[in-house]
Write a structure and sequence with these properties.
Blueprint: E1 9-10, H1 29-34, E2 57-62, H2 70-85, E3 93-98, H3 100-103, H4 110-127, E4 135-138, H5 144-153, H6 158-162, H7 165-179, H8 189-204, E5 209-211, H9 217-234, H10 237-247, E6 259-261, H11 298-306, H12 324-335, H13 347-354, H14 359-385, H15 388-417
Length: 424
Protein backbone atom coordinates (compact mmCIF):
# COMPACT_ATOMS: atom_id res chain seq x y z
CA UNK A 1 0.00 0.00 0.00
CA UNK A 2 0.96 3.63 -0.10
CA UNK A 3 2.80 5.00 2.92
CA UNK A 4 2.99 8.75 3.54
CA UNK A 5 2.78 9.29 7.27
CA UNK A 6 4.72 12.52 7.55
CA UNK A 7 2.43 14.26 5.11
CA UNK A 8 -0.70 13.24 7.01
CA UNK A 9 -1.58 10.18 5.01
CA UNK A 10 -0.41 6.87 6.26
CA UNK A 11 -1.53 4.60 3.63
CA UNK A 12 -0.32 1.01 3.60
CA UNK A 13 -2.29 -1.41 1.48
CA UNK A 14 -0.37 -4.65 1.69
CA UNK A 15 -0.95 -8.20 0.65
CA UNK A 16 -0.25 -11.28 2.68
CA UNK A 17 -0.23 -14.69 1.06
CA UNK A 18 -2.14 -17.07 3.36
CA UNK A 19 -2.24 -20.80 2.88
CA UNK A 20 -5.52 -21.69 1.21
CA UNK A 21 -5.56 -24.91 3.16
CA UNK A 22 -5.99 -23.15 6.49
CA UNK A 23 -9.29 -21.68 7.62
CA UNK A 24 -9.04 -18.08 8.80
CA UNK A 25 -11.14 -16.83 11.69
CA UNK A 26 -10.85 -14.26 14.46
CA UNK A 27 -10.19 -17.02 16.98
CA UNK A 28 -7.36 -18.72 15.08
CA UNK A 29 -4.44 -16.48 15.96
CA UNK A 30 -1.99 -19.35 16.08
CA UNK A 31 -3.21 -20.62 12.71
CA UNK A 32 -2.73 -17.17 11.22
CA UNK A 33 0.83 -17.16 12.45
CA UNK A 34 1.58 -20.63 11.20
CA UNK A 35 0.09 -20.09 7.75
CA UNK A 36 1.94 -16.94 6.67
CA UNK A 37 2.94 -18.54 3.36
CA UNK A 38 1.71 -21.38 1.24
CA UNK A 39 5.12 -23.01 1.65
CA UNK A 40 4.47 -23.30 5.39
CA UNK A 41 1.25 -25.25 4.87
CA UNK A 42 1.25 -28.86 6.09
CA UNK A 43 2.37 -31.39 3.50
CA UNK A 44 -0.98 -33.13 3.71
CA UNK A 45 -2.79 -30.01 2.42
CA UNK A 46 -4.98 -30.97 -0.55
CA UNK A 47 -3.76 -29.91 -4.00
CA UNK A 48 -7.19 -28.36 -4.70
CA UNK A 49 -6.44 -25.69 -2.12
CA UNK A 50 -4.00 -23.98 -4.48
CA UNK A 51 -6.26 -23.75 -7.51
CA UNK A 52 -7.67 -20.38 -6.48
CA UNK A 53 -5.77 -17.20 -5.64
CA UNK A 54 -4.75 -17.06 -1.96
CA UNK A 55 -6.55 -14.51 0.23
CA UNK A 56 -5.14 -11.02 0.66
CA UNK A 57 -4.80 -8.98 3.81
CA UNK A 58 -4.88 -5.21 3.42
CA UNK A 59 -4.02 -2.68 6.12
CA UNK A 60 -4.23 1.05 5.52
CA UNK A 61 -4.73 4.22 7.51
CA UNK A 62 -4.77 8.01 7.65
CA UNK A 63 -3.51 10.29 10.41
CA UNK A 64 -6.17 12.15 12.42
CA UNK A 65 -4.39 15.48 12.12
CA UNK A 66 -6.76 18.24 11.10
CA UNK A 67 -9.55 17.26 8.76
CA UNK A 68 -9.41 14.77 5.90
CA UNK A 69 -9.08 16.60 2.60
CA UNK A 70 -9.79 15.69 -1.00
CA UNK A 71 -6.24 14.41 -1.53
CA UNK A 72 -6.54 11.97 1.39
CA UNK A 73 -9.91 10.79 0.13
CA UNK A 74 -9.03 10.36 -3.55
CA UNK A 75 -5.51 9.03 -2.94
CA UNK A 76 -6.37 6.58 -0.18
CA UNK A 77 -9.88 6.13 1.17
CA UNK A 78 -11.66 5.82 -2.16
CA UNK A 79 -9.10 3.23 -3.26
CA UNK A 80 -9.80 1.23 -0.10
CA UNK A 81 -13.47 1.18 -1.04
CA UNK A 82 -12.53 -0.09 -4.51
CA UNK A 83 -10.33 -2.81 -3.02
CA UNK A 84 -13.22 -3.86 -0.80
CA UNK A 85 -15.68 -3.81 -3.70
CA UNK A 86 -13.43 -5.68 -6.14
CA UNK A 87 -12.35 -8.48 -3.80
CA UNK A 88 -12.88 -11.81 -5.56
CA UNK A 89 -12.11 -13.98 -2.53
CA UNK A 90 -14.48 -14.12 0.42
CA UNK A 91 -11.52 -14.83 2.70
CA UNK A 92 -9.73 -11.59 1.84
CA UNK A 93 -9.21 -9.44 4.93
CA UNK A 94 -9.19 -5.64 5.07
CA UNK A 95 -8.27 -3.58 8.12
CA UNK A 96 -8.40 0.22 8.02
CA UNK A 97 -7.05 2.17 10.96
CA UNK A 98 -6.81 5.75 12.17
CA UNK A 99 -3.08 6.06 12.92
CA UNK A 100 -3.23 8.31 15.96
CA UNK A 101 0.13 7.10 17.28
CA UNK A 102 1.81 8.54 14.20
CA UNK A 103 -0.12 11.79 14.59
CA UNK A 104 1.52 12.61 17.93
CA UNK A 105 5.00 12.76 16.39
CA UNK A 106 3.99 16.40 16.04
CA UNK A 107 2.28 18.44 18.78
CA UNK A 108 -1.47 17.77 18.99
CA UNK A 109 -4.12 19.59 20.99
CA UNK A 110 -5.55 17.02 23.45
CA UNK A 111 -8.97 18.63 23.05
CA UNK A 112 -8.91 18.00 19.31
CA UNK A 113 -7.08 14.67 18.88
CA UNK A 114 -9.96 12.47 20.08
CA UNK A 115 -12.53 14.29 17.96
CA UNK A 116 -10.26 14.19 14.90
CA UNK A 117 -9.85 10.45 15.42
CA UNK A 118 -13.59 9.80 15.52
CA UNK A 119 -14.12 12.14 12.57
CA UNK A 120 -11.59 10.22 10.48
CA UNK A 121 -13.15 6.86 11.31
CA UNK A 122 -16.62 8.17 10.51
CA UNK A 123 -15.41 9.47 7.14
CA UNK A 124 -14.01 6.01 6.33
CA UNK A 125 -17.48 4.55 6.89
CA UNK A 126 -19.29 7.40 5.14
CA UNK A 127 -17.06 6.98 2.08
CA UNK A 128 -18.11 3.35 1.71
CA UNK A 129 -16.01 1.16 4.01
CA UNK A 130 -18.42 -1.55 5.13
CA UNK A 131 -17.72 -2.88 8.66
CA UNK A 132 -19.37 -6.16 7.66
CA UNK A 133 -16.61 -6.67 5.08
CA UNK A 134 -13.71 -4.67 6.56
CA UNK A 135 -12.51 -3.85 10.04
CA UNK A 136 -12.08 -0.22 11.10
CA UNK A 137 -10.10 0.57 14.23
CA UNK A 138 -7.93 3.12 16.01
CA UNK A 139 -4.22 2.30 16.05
CA UNK A 140 -3.76 3.08 19.75
CA UNK A 141 -6.62 0.68 20.59
CA UNK A 142 -4.39 -2.21 19.51
CA UNK A 143 -1.49 -2.26 22.03
CA UNK A 144 0.54 -4.59 19.80
CA UNK A 145 1.50 -1.61 17.60
CA UNK A 146 3.19 0.18 20.48
CA UNK A 147 4.80 -2.93 21.92
CA UNK A 148 6.32 -4.22 18.71
CA UNK A 149 7.39 -0.67 17.88
CA UNK A 150 9.35 -0.59 21.15
CA UNK A 151 10.86 -4.05 20.67
CA UNK A 152 12.09 -3.09 17.21
CA UNK A 153 13.34 0.31 18.42
CA UNK A 154 15.61 -1.49 20.86
CA UNK A 155 17.33 -3.36 18.02
CA UNK A 156 17.55 -0.42 15.60
CA UNK A 157 20.97 1.29 15.31
CA UNK A 158 20.72 5.06 15.64
CA UNK A 159 22.67 5.70 12.46
CA UNK A 160 19.99 3.88 10.47
CA UNK A 161 17.42 6.45 11.56
CA UNK A 162 19.81 9.36 11.06
CA UNK A 163 19.77 8.56 7.35
CA UNK A 164 16.01 9.05 7.04
CA UNK A 165 15.48 11.98 4.67
CA UNK A 166 11.91 12.73 5.72
CA UNK A 167 12.97 13.19 9.35
CA UNK A 168 15.42 15.89 8.33
CA UNK A 169 12.85 17.64 6.15
CA UNK A 170 10.10 17.55 8.78
CA UNK A 171 12.44 18.66 11.55
CA UNK A 172 13.40 21.71 9.51
CA UNK A 173 9.74 22.58 8.94
CA UNK A 174 8.95 22.28 12.65
CA UNK A 175 11.90 24.51 13.49
CA UNK A 176 10.75 27.14 10.97
CA UNK A 177 7.23 27.06 12.39
CA UNK A 178 8.40 27.94 15.88
CA UNK A 179 9.41 24.55 17.18
CA UNK A 180 12.95 25.69 17.88
CA UNK A 181 15.93 27.47 16.43
CA UNK A 182 17.56 24.47 14.77
CA UNK A 183 16.83 20.92 13.63
CA UNK A 184 16.94 19.47 17.13
CA UNK A 185 15.20 22.06 19.31
CA UNK A 186 11.50 21.43 19.75
CA UNK A 187 11.51 18.19 17.75
CA UNK A 188 10.28 15.13 19.65
CA UNK A 189 12.14 11.83 19.65
CA UNK A 190 8.99 10.22 18.20
CA UNK A 191 9.57 12.01 14.91
CA UNK A 192 13.04 10.45 14.79
CA UNK A 193 11.90 6.92 15.63
CA UNK A 194 8.49 6.82 13.94
CA UNK A 195 9.81 4.82 10.91
CA UNK A 196 10.33 1.94 13.35
CA UNK A 197 6.69 2.16 14.41
CA UNK A 198 5.78 2.13 10.74
CA UNK A 199 7.83 -1.04 10.31
CA UNK A 200 5.99 -2.57 13.27
CA UNK A 201 2.64 -1.70 11.69
CA UNK A 202 3.65 -3.60 8.55
CA UNK A 203 5.23 -6.61 10.27
CA UNK A 204 2.38 -7.16 12.74
CA UNK A 205 0.14 -8.34 9.94
CA UNK A 206 2.64 -10.44 7.98
CA UNK A 207 2.87 -8.39 4.79
CA UNK A 208 4.61 -9.94 1.82
CA UNK A 209 4.16 -6.95 -0.53
CA UNK A 210 3.73 -3.31 0.38
CA UNK A 211 2.57 -0.85 -2.29
CA UNK A 212 4.34 2.41 -1.40
CA UNK A 213 5.02 5.79 -2.91
CA UNK A 214 8.57 6.59 -3.99
CA UNK A 215 8.91 9.00 -1.04
CA UNK A 216 8.36 6.11 1.37
CA UNK A 217 10.64 3.52 -0.25
CA UNK A 218 13.42 4.41 2.20
CA UNK A 219 11.15 3.55 5.12
CA UNK A 220 10.30 0.18 3.59
CA UNK A 221 14.00 -0.53 3.12
CA UNK A 222 14.46 0.21 6.83
CA UNK A 223 11.70 -2.31 7.56
CA UNK A 224 13.50 -4.94 5.48
CA UNK A 225 16.79 -4.18 7.24
CA UNK A 226 15.07 -4.60 10.61
CA UNK A 227 13.66 -7.99 9.58
CA UNK A 228 17.15 -9.23 8.68
CA UNK A 229 18.71 -7.80 11.83
CA UNK A 230 16.03 -9.23 14.14
CA UNK A 231 16.00 -12.67 12.54
CA UNK A 232 19.82 -12.87 12.45
CA UNK A 233 20.06 -11.82 16.08
CA UNK A 234 17.25 -13.88 17.60
CA UNK A 235 16.00 -16.56 15.20
CA UNK A 236 19.04 -18.55 14.12
CA UNK A 237 20.83 -21.66 15.29
CA UNK A 238 19.97 -24.89 17.00
CA UNK A 239 19.45 -23.23 20.36
CA UNK A 240 16.57 -21.18 18.94
CA UNK A 241 15.02 -24.21 17.27
CA UNK A 242 15.26 -26.25 20.46
CA UNK A 243 13.59 -23.49 22.47
CA UNK A 244 10.83 -23.27 19.89
CA UNK A 245 10.18 -27.00 19.84
CA UNK A 246 10.13 -27.15 23.61
CA UNK A 247 7.61 -24.30 23.78
CA UNK A 248 5.54 -25.57 20.86
CA UNK A 249 6.41 -22.53 18.74
CA UNK A 250 7.20 -22.45 15.00
CA UNK A 251 10.93 -22.78 14.29
CA UNK A 252 11.05 -20.45 11.30
CA UNK A 253 12.06 -16.78 11.78
CA UNK A 254 9.51 -14.41 13.32
CA UNK A 255 9.46 -11.88 10.48
CA UNK A 256 9.72 -12.01 6.73
CA UNK A 257 10.93 -9.26 4.42
CA UNK A 258 8.16 -7.38 2.61
CA UNK A 259 8.69 -6.43 -1.01
CA UNK A 260 8.05 -2.93 -2.35
CA UNK A 261 5.35 -2.44 -4.93
CA UNK A 262 5.72 1.00 -6.50
CA UNK A 263 2.39 1.42 -8.22
CA UNK A 264 0.82 4.09 -10.39
CA UNK A 265 -2.91 3.57 -10.68
CA UNK A 266 -4.64 5.07 -13.70
CA UNK A 267 -6.88 7.98 -12.77
CA UNK A 268 -5.44 8.53 -9.29
CA UNK A 269 -3.01 11.37 -9.91
CA UNK A 270 -1.67 13.15 -6.84
CA UNK A 271 -3.91 16.00 -5.72
CA UNK A 272 -1.99 19.25 -5.41
CA UNK A 273 -2.56 22.46 -3.48
CA UNK A 274 -5.15 24.93 -4.77
CA UNK A 275 -2.70 27.76 -4.14
CA UNK A 276 0.40 26.13 -5.65
CA UNK A 277 0.11 23.38 -8.23
CA UNK A 278 3.66 22.20 -7.53
CA UNK A 279 3.01 21.25 -3.89
CA UNK A 280 0.81 18.45 -2.56
CA UNK A 281 -2.51 19.27 -0.94
CA UNK A 282 -1.68 19.10 2.76
CA UNK A 283 -3.35 19.23 6.16
CA UNK A 284 -0.37 21.10 7.55
CA UNK A 285 -0.68 24.07 5.20
CA UNK A 286 -1.69 27.08 7.30
CA UNK A 287 -3.91 28.36 4.47
CA UNK A 288 -7.22 26.47 4.53
CA UNK A 289 -7.89 27.71 0.98
CA UNK A 290 -5.04 25.49 -0.23
CA UNK A 291 -7.25 22.40 0.14
CA UNK A 292 -10.80 21.13 -0.16
CA UNK A 293 -11.83 19.32 2.99
CA UNK A 294 -14.21 16.41 2.65
CA UNK A 295 -16.60 18.04 5.13
CA UNK A 296 -16.47 21.57 3.71
CA UNK A 297 -19.86 23.18 3.09
CA UNK A 298 -20.83 23.49 -0.60
CA UNK A 299 -20.53 27.28 -0.39
CA UNK A 300 -17.01 26.98 0.97
CA UNK A 301 -16.02 24.52 -1.75
CA UNK A 302 -17.30 26.87 -4.43
CA UNK A 303 -15.42 29.80 -2.93
CA UNK A 304 -12.17 27.85 -2.62
CA UNK A 305 -12.31 26.73 -6.24
CA UNK A 306 -13.24 30.23 -7.37
CA UNK A 307 -10.11 31.58 -5.66
CA UNK A 308 -7.81 28.70 -6.69
CA UNK A 309 -4.62 29.76 -8.43
CA UNK A 310 -4.75 29.64 -12.22
CA UNK A 311 -2.77 31.13 -15.15
CA UNK A 312 -3.15 33.48 -18.09
CA UNK A 313 -3.11 30.88 -20.86
CA UNK A 314 -6.07 30.50 -23.22
CA UNK A 315 -7.90 27.19 -22.94
CA UNK A 316 -7.22 24.36 -20.49
CA UNK A 317 -4.91 21.40 -20.97
CA UNK A 318 -3.21 18.55 -19.15
CA UNK A 319 0.51 17.94 -18.65
CA UNK A 320 1.94 21.29 -19.68
CA UNK A 321 4.95 21.81 -17.37
CA UNK A 322 4.28 25.54 -17.40
CA UNK A 323 0.70 25.00 -16.19
CA UNK A 324 0.75 22.83 -13.03
CA UNK A 325 -2.48 24.38 -11.72
CA UNK A 326 -4.33 23.47 -14.90
CA UNK A 327 -3.21 19.85 -14.65
CA UNK A 328 -4.20 19.73 -10.97
CA UNK A 329 -7.70 21.14 -11.40
CA UNK A 330 -8.36 18.92 -14.41
CA UNK A 331 -7.16 15.88 -12.44
CA UNK A 332 -9.61 16.75 -9.68
CA UNK A 333 -12.42 17.15 -12.22
CA UNK A 334 -11.60 13.76 -13.71
CA UNK A 335 -11.39 12.11 -10.29
CA UNK A 336 -14.86 13.24 -9.19
CA UNK A 337 -16.63 12.14 -12.37
CA UNK A 338 -19.57 9.79 -11.80
CA UNK A 339 -19.52 6.35 -13.45
CA UNK A 340 -19.74 6.43 -17.25
CA UNK A 341 -23.23 4.93 -17.18
CA UNK A 342 -24.32 7.91 -15.07
CA UNK A 343 -22.88 10.47 -17.47
CA UNK A 344 -19.28 10.56 -16.31
CA UNK A 345 -16.66 11.81 -18.77
CA UNK A 346 -13.36 10.18 -19.74
CA UNK A 347 -10.08 12.07 -19.77
CA UNK A 348 -10.26 12.43 -23.54
CA UNK A 349 -13.82 13.76 -23.37
CA UNK A 350 -12.85 16.28 -20.70
CA UNK A 351 -9.85 17.43 -22.72
CA UNK A 352 -12.13 18.09 -25.66
CA UNK A 353 -14.70 19.83 -23.43
CA UNK A 354 -12.22 22.30 -21.88
CA UNK A 355 -9.72 22.94 -24.68
CA UNK A 356 -11.22 26.34 -25.52
CA UNK A 357 -12.72 27.10 -22.12
CA UNK A 358 -11.79 30.04 -19.89
CA UNK A 359 -11.13 29.65 -16.17
CA UNK A 360 -14.26 31.65 -15.49
CA UNK A 361 -16.30 29.07 -17.37
CA UNK A 362 -14.53 25.99 -15.99
CA UNK A 363 -14.33 26.75 -12.27
CA UNK A 364 -18.12 26.69 -11.63
CA UNK A 365 -18.35 23.36 -13.49
CA UNK A 366 -15.54 21.93 -11.39
CA UNK A 367 -17.07 23.25 -8.16
CA UNK A 368 -20.45 21.66 -8.85
CA UNK A 369 -18.79 18.34 -9.74
CA UNK A 370 -16.88 18.31 -6.44
CA UNK A 371 -19.96 19.32 -4.43
CA UNK A 372 -22.04 16.58 -6.06
CA UNK A 373 -19.35 13.97 -5.41
CA UNK A 374 -18.95 14.84 -1.73
CA UNK A 375 -22.64 15.39 -0.94
CA UNK A 376 -23.55 11.73 -0.23
CA UNK A 377 -20.41 11.28 1.88
CA UNK A 378 -21.28 14.33 3.96
CA UNK A 379 -24.84 13.12 4.43
CA UNK A 380 -23.70 9.65 5.53
CA UNK A 381 -21.11 11.21 7.84
CA UNK A 382 -23.77 13.21 9.67
CA UNK A 383 -25.90 10.11 10.16
CA UNK A 384 -22.93 8.17 11.57
CA UNK A 385 -21.91 10.94 13.97
CA UNK A 386 -25.49 11.18 15.21
CA UNK A 387 -25.16 7.57 16.40
CA UNK A 388 -22.17 7.39 18.75
CA UNK A 389 -23.04 3.86 19.85
CA UNK A 390 -22.78 2.54 16.30
CA UNK A 391 -19.41 4.19 15.66
CA UNK A 392 -17.94 3.04 18.98
CA UNK A 393 -19.15 -0.52 18.38
CA UNK A 394 -17.56 -0.58 14.92
CA UNK A 395 -14.24 0.63 16.33
CA UNK A 396 -14.30 -1.89 19.18
CA UNK A 397 -15.08 -4.80 16.86
CA UNK A 398 -12.30 -3.68 14.53
CA UNK A 399 -9.76 -3.34 17.33
CA UNK A 400 -10.65 -6.78 18.71
CA UNK A 401 -10.16 -8.39 15.29
CA UNK A 402 -6.87 -6.56 14.65
CA UNK A 403 -5.57 -7.42 18.10
CA UNK A 404 -6.24 -11.13 17.55
CA UNK A 405 -3.99 -11.05 14.49
CA UNK A 406 -1.30 -8.71 15.81
CA UNK A 407 -0.73 -10.28 19.22
CA UNK A 408 0.37 -13.59 17.72
CA UNK A 409 3.30 -11.79 16.10
CA UNK A 410 4.14 -9.87 19.28
CA UNK A 411 4.14 -13.11 21.28
CA UNK A 412 6.51 -14.69 18.77
CA UNK A 413 8.83 -11.66 18.94
CA UNK A 414 8.82 -11.71 22.74
CA UNK A 415 9.66 -15.41 22.73
CA UNK A 416 12.51 -14.99 20.26
CA UNK A 417 14.03 -12.19 22.36
CA UNK A 418 13.90 -14.32 25.48
CA UNK A 419 11.18 -12.66 27.54
CA UNK A 420 9.64 -14.80 30.28
CA UNK A 421 6.34 -16.12 28.99
CA UNK A 422 3.17 -15.55 31.05
CA UNK A 423 1.54 -18.70 32.38
CA UNK A 424 -1.59 -19.80 30.58
Amino acid sequence: MLISALNGTFTRAFTRQISQSRAISSTQTQTLFLSSTAAEAPIEAPIEAHKTAPPKRILSGVQPTGTIHLGNYLGAIRQWVELQRNSDNEKDESLFCVVDLHAITQPQDPKELGESTLMSAAIYLAAGIDPKKSKVFVQSHVPAHSELGWLLTCVTPMNWLERMIQYKDKAEKIAKNGGGGDNSSGVGVGLFTYPVLMAADILLYGATHVPVGEDQRQHLELCRDLVRRFNDKYCKGNAYKKRCKKAGMPTYPVFREPEAMIQKVEGTARVMSLTDGTNKMSKSDANDYSRINVLDDPAVIRDKIKKAKTDAFVGLEWDNAERPEATNLLNIYLAVQPPKEEGGLSKEEIADQVKDMSWGDFKPILAEAVVAHLEPIQKAYKEIRDNDTYLNDVLKDGADAANEIAMSKVKAARFAMGFAQPSS
